[in-house]
Amino acid sequence: MEDNPYVKIVQLVRNQADRQIPTLFRLGTVISPNPLKIDVSSTVQDEGALFKNAALGELESGDSVLLVTLDGDQHFIILCKVVGV
Fold first, then answer.
1. Looking at residues 42-64, what average pLDDT do you find?
2. Structure pTM?
């Protein structure tokens, strides 16, 4: 199977596709609730880059939140608060 050139082509296509699929969700940590600042992938996002689910309650410093990325990580929607089990 290793000598089959088609296997190598399929592997190459899969590797390229994996690199092109964007990450849609990010986990963030609330740094400050007012003004709202969230650490997302080691970058601090402020109110100018954040949108919030209207049903989401108040956030506190240290809360973990699940975010959806927009515009190639330029803006984020805070979906919900995330807690451990």
1. 95
2. 0.73
